Amino acid sequence: MSSNFPAFAELIAQTEHSALHLEMRDVYTPKGPVFVDWQKGVPIEYDRHGDWIDLVQGAITRGIDWRRARIVSEPVTDFIQYEWETTTIVNVPAGEKVRWLPRQNASDLLLPGNDFWVFDDSLLRWTTFHGDGSWGPHAFSEDPKLIRQCKEAFESVWARAVDHADYTPPRKEQAAA
Known about the structure:
The chain is globular. It has a single domain, classed as Endonuclease, Chain A (2-Layer Sandwich), CATH 3.30.870.10. Strand 2, helix 4 and strand 3 form a beta-alpha-beta unit. 37% of the residues lie in helices and 23% in strands. It is built from six helices and seven strands, in the order αβααβαββββαβα. It has 177 residues and is α/β, with parallel strands linked by helices. Strands 6-5-4-1-2-3-7 form a seven-stranded mixed β-sheet, with helices on both faces.
């Protein structure tokens, strides 16, 4: 595995067919400014995510199959609630296809230890995080066997997951009621 690959926007620009992303954590970047603002009651705004929206829409316009699957614990954490709201306001309107799989429905799936992206079935980017949720280093692989295993893991989650339009994440206060 290597870390000597282009930045994410460049990877997307080079992608010709598909970008698949599997997320399996319940908290990401808990000190990120948009999340911190959301915790303070600042609404999520589509326009605040312009660079991401441009990146996704550019890829979708080129015919890229952009899919994101998330495995989440229920009731969801505040961060996952924030992600769900962001997905409703930003990701889906930008063109991403997003599905959610409650963690209890993933127990019998064989999944890798880290989140990942698979680009065009030819490049794997591991997304790692430190214990506090801050970004860790990215690693890359072009190993066809590893890419195939990750794609199969993604597809097994995708087949079982619920489309974003049909998923409402249960919150702690809802579970207690």
